[in-house]
Amino acid sequence: MIHTVKKGETITSIAIDYRIPVQTLLSVNNLANPNIIFIGQQINIPGLPEPATIPYEIHVSIASRRLTLISQGKILKVYPIAVGKILTLTPIGDYVIVNREPNPGGPFGAMWLSLSKIHYGIHGTNDPSSIGKAVSLGCIRMYNQDVIELASIVPNGTRVIIKPS
Fold first, then answer.
1. Single residue among 28, 44, 60 that ends a domain in this structure
2. Beta strand pairing status for 56-61 and 159-163?
3. Count H helices, E strands: the chain?
4. Where residue 33 sits, what CATH number does that domain have?
5. Active site (annotated) includes residue 139
6. What is the largest CA-CA distance in the chain?
7. pLDDT score for 58
8. Are residues 76 and 106 both part of a single domain?
9. For 104-150, how does the pLDDT look when each residue is reduced to its tens digit (9 = 90+)?
10. What span, in angstroms and rounded, lies between the C-alpha atoms of 65 and 76?
11. Is-contact 39 5, C-beta < 8 A?
12. Out of 3, 59, 119, 123, which one is annotated catalytic?
């Protein structure tokens, strides 16, 4: 997939967000100097399909605490979620699912779907009473059965759009 460099990003921060080695990014993109990138530059992220080739998209509404699964422009399913609290807000923006881990344990429930922003993901929960609330450290929490269902449908590379409303 192609990542467009945004203000404040570095090769290292991009590598961390996508969970790939810096050296891999440098090599794949034929970059001799990791300190020279510019806003708007396109960086190839190996191992992930281009989101436009995936028939699914996930839209997250922080205000309504809903995650909507869309396929080819049609709503497939709407799930209730929990979002970040005031001091640890869920980040607004466009991301992709970069990897997944079944049964990560602890508060992450039955499945973890990593987003292309380090430390953030869509995951299950060991506290189902938290769903519908703003209580997380910024991640998107789902009922375990819902995140398992979602993970069985969407592949890595799926676009995730998080909006305030």
1. 44
2. parallel
3. 3, 12
4. 3.10.350.10
5. yes
6. 51
7. 98
8. yes
9. 988 999 999 999 999 999 999 999 999 999 999 999 999 999 999 99
10. 17
11. yes
12. 123
Token pair, residue 11, equals: 């090769």
Instruction: Write the CA distances from 111 to 89, 150, 162, integer angstroms.
Output: 21, 10, 19
How close are the terminal C-alpha atoms of the chain, in Å? 28
Q: Find all residues with CB under 8 Å of 73, minimum gap 6, and list them.
A: none
The SS3 call for residue 39 is coil
Based on the domain organization, do 7 and 79 belong to the same domain?
no
CA-to-CA distance for 98 and 118, rounded, in angstroms? 10
Q: Identify whether residues 12 and 64 lie together within a single domain.
A: no
Q: Which domain holds residue 36?
A: 2-44
Look up tokens 């519908």; give the residue: 132
Residue 164 has which token pair?
Answer: 């305030």
31 and 62 assigned to the same domain: no
